[in-house]
Amino acid sequence: MTMYAPASPEHPAATDDPITTIVIAGATGDLAQRKLLPALYHLWIKGRLAPNVPIVGFSRAKMSTDEFREFMWRGIQEIGGIEPNRDQWEAFAPRLSYFGGDLGSTDDVGALGKHLDETEAGDPHANRLFYLSITPAIFEPAVSSLDACGLVEETPDTGWRRVVVEKPFGRDLATANALNRTIHNVFREEQVYRIDHYLGKETVQNLLVLRFANAIFEPIWNRNYVDNVQITVAESVDVGERAGYYDQFGVVRDMIQNHLLQVLALVTMEPPVTLEADSLRNKKVEALRAIRPWTASEAARNAVRAQYVGYRDAHGVDPHSATPTYAAMRLYLDNWRWQGVPFYLRSGKAMAQKSSEIAIEFRAPPHRIFPANPMWGPLANILTLRLQPDEGVHLRFAAKLPDQGMAVRPVDMDFYYGTEFGSEELPEAYERLLSDALDGDASLFIRSDHIEEAWKIVDPLLEAWEDSISHPVQWYEPGSWGPETADALLSQDGRAWAPVGDRHGRIND
Ligand code: BG6
Question: Model pTM?
Answer without folding.
Answer: 0.93
